Amino acid sequence: MSVQFEEGTTLDRFLMDQLRDYPGATGQFVNLMQSIALAGKMISSRVNRVGLAGLLGSTGEVNVQGEFVQKLDRYANETFLRALEHRGHTCMVVSEEEGEVVLTPDKWHSGRYVVTVDPLDGSSNIDVNATIATIFGVYRRKSSEGGPAELADVLRPGRELVAAGYILYGSGTMLVLAIDRGVFGFSLDPTVGEFFLSHPSIVVPARGSIFSVNEGYAAEWGPGITRYVQSLKAPGTKYTARYIGSLAADFHRNLLKGGVFLYPATTTSPRGKLRLLYEANPLAYIIEKAGGAATNGRTPILEIRPGSIHHRVPLVIGGVDEVREATEQMKDDFAF
Ligand code: AHG
Ligand code: MN
Ligand code: MN
User: Fold this and answer.
1) Strands 68-70 and 58-62: what pairing?
2) Dihedrals phi, psi of 189, to nearest 5 degrees
3) Ligand 1 lined by 245 (C-beta under 6 Å)
4) pLDDT in tens, 261-283
5) Which of 14-23, 68-77, 127-136 has the highest mean pLDDT?
6) Per CATH, the architecture of 11-199 is what?
């Protein structure tokens, strides 16, 4: 559907305009998105001063993923938990940086939303000033709003998401939000501290000319993805390679320009590296709302039932043509 918006539409006004189309809406989703936007502005402010705010480098801790926690990872995680826990809209959070689910305080059991979040995606790029991001997904709880949230509220296919998005901390700060009617981009004007609608309706080309994969692992790939990547590099194809090493940044470029991102199973990571709940699912929800596709090399990402909150999957995501062609090649690539 083509939605007409005036120049200068703020995120708040956009959300309030959407509210009119949902008669049963209580305003909790608008409130939730305002909390997410606030957390994004706070992290953006720190990212822009990371070299001066003592936020470079690692805390020395190792998280549940077995990765060294960067100072900005911890700041971003604490900022999102604080923004989500005390506003009455959220009953549970799953964060990459938390070993277990985080239930919001008892008095907020009535919150109707569950949020999955990668507070800071692309941590290896913090110290080298490359684009990093926050990725989030939003479910409506299934359990009754009177009691505490349950694991079943979040161990469910991404098909049940009601919204997803990311906040890119790059040359500018941009919030991309997907809801049932489409994908919208909002750019932060730091001089006024507001997100303004800058991309009224994002649609991904069915086929592009960019592929993103870390070829440093090529020796660990299955035969299918090896064949597929070779086919993109054959003489006469129009593909170019781009890989930043920040999932959301690589994804965003391909979303706007077309192309395919692949993080396949490897002998080191036979189940893939990327996490389903707060990386693959939110981006798969976004890409499908933008007309694209996402699989694990065999099955649509949004149909995968998570086995745990930190479930990892291989990921192939982008234009429908490239994802179909890659998946046709890769379906025999991994054991399960
Ligand atoms: P995170 O920083 O949240 O742990 O995510 C890092 C991920 C993702 O952003 C990126 O696509 C991928 O790691 C890069 O992995 P490689 O360095 O193995 O290519
Ligand atoms: Mn990540
Ligand atoms: Mn992360």
Assistant:
1) antiparallel
2) -95, 100
3) yes
4) 999 999 999 999 999 999 999 99
5) 127-136
6) 2-Layer Sandwich (3.30)
